[in-house]
Amino acid sequence: MSTLAMHPLTGTAPTEADRALAPAIPRPAVRTEHAPLRENTRNATFRFDTSPRVLTVVSTLRLSEALMRIRFRADDDFAGFPSISPDEHLKLFFDMDEDGMPVLPTIVDGRFAIRGLTHRDFTIRWFDSANRTLDIDFVLHTHGVAGHWAATAAPGDRLGSMGPRSTYLVKDTFDWYVLAADDTALPALARWAETLPKGTAATAFIEVASPASQIPLPTRADLTVHWLYRGDAQPGTTTLLADAVMEYDFTNPNGYVWAAGEAMSIKSLRCYLTFRTRLTRDNWTVDGYWRRGEAAFDRTLRGRACPQCTTPAA
Is there a single domain that holds both residue 145 and residue 233? Predict the structure, then answer.
């Protein structure tokens, strides 16, 4: 179980405010009551009704050199907000009108119109259904609207938001779990770690720039963490993450692999899991969270194989 013994940047003991935003022990895994759209013994898919809402910053905490956690309240008190799985994300909107109010999506013919709005997708790190607050971890890029906004965010600042619209729940039916993430997917991996059942065998591979980007990972699981440092290499230019996962022992096929990061850098992993292991399609997810050179990129790498991966596993 990871703990926050010292503040990652100052080296001082964490304050009560720090502990409130980044508890040293895992929080209860609470799931809201939403009926699945589809379900089987291993997973379930959910879709939610959603409306635009305004979020207001409550507090902030610098988790590491690369991550800032921001806690929000909502103008509608997060009415009907779901909390099901680490797959959940919402869109944040960064445009403001002349009065300084967030510009929200409009509804056209029953559909949300977001064209022309500056938006990015973010993992929901934690939703506190009792206190009606929501945590989002922002990567502090040296470029990009979201990173710049997060670096100077203060209580009272506001953003538009919408979502989540759907989520994919992986059930606790596997013997082992492999979690792999770069900086952008680290918040989702941290939520995975925090919600795994007690004693679950799990291994995490995490690519970051340096030890200064590491964060604690509170968990009840039997979790082994491998930090992969890319050093001076630019994010998304290495194959550290895919290479590390492909070294894992997949002899026992009753496990689950979740991997997310720069789309092209992990594409080979999707092919490896498809053709070089005995895992079925219900045993893994490989998500492209972003792509070098593209803003607001968000899609899942499904149904596309690398040309060199053509031989099925024996």
Answer: no
Domains in the chain: how many in total? Answer: 2
How much is the pLDDT for 195?
96
- List of E strands, 152-283: 158-162, 166-170, 176-181, 201-208, 222-229, 255-262
The pLDDT, as a whole number, for residue 307 is 43
Contact 63, 2 (CB under 8 A): no
Distance CA 293, CA 130 (A): 40
Find, among 305, 297, 179, the residue nearest to 245 by Cα. 179
Q: Are 153 and 70 in contact (CB under 8 A)?
A: yes
Residues ≥6 apart with Cβ < 8 Å to 64: 8, 9, 212, 213, 214, 215
Looking at the domain assignment, is residue 50 inside a domain?
yes
Strands annotated E in 103-252: 106-108, 111-113, 119-123, 126-128, 133-139, 158-162, 166-170, 176-181, 201-208, 222-229
Q: What is the pLDDT of residues 78-137, one digit of tens each?
A: 999 999 999 999 999 999 999 999 999 987 776 888 889 999 999 999 999 999 999 999
The segments of the chain whose pLDDT lies below 70 read: 1-13, 110, 142, 293-314
Query: Is the peptide bond prior to 14 cis by the omega test (within 30 degrees of 0)?
Result: no
Same domain, 269 and 211: yes
pLDDT at residue 291, rounded to an integer = 77
Confidence (pLDDT) at 154 = 97
Same domain, residue pair 262 and 248: yes
Distance CA 153, CA 273 (A): 40
Q: State how far the Cα of 199 lies from the Cα of 42, in Å rounded to an integer.
A: 19
Whether residue 254 lies inside any domain: the answer is yes
Pull the structure tokens for residue 285.
């997810």
| CA 79 from centre of chain | 22
| Judgement on whether residues 28 and 153 belong to the same structural domain of the protein | yes
pLDDT digits (tens, 9 = 90+) for 229-240: 999 999 889 999
What CA–CA distance (Å, rounded) separates 253 from 80? 37
- The domain spanning residue 93 has which CATH number? 2.40.30.10
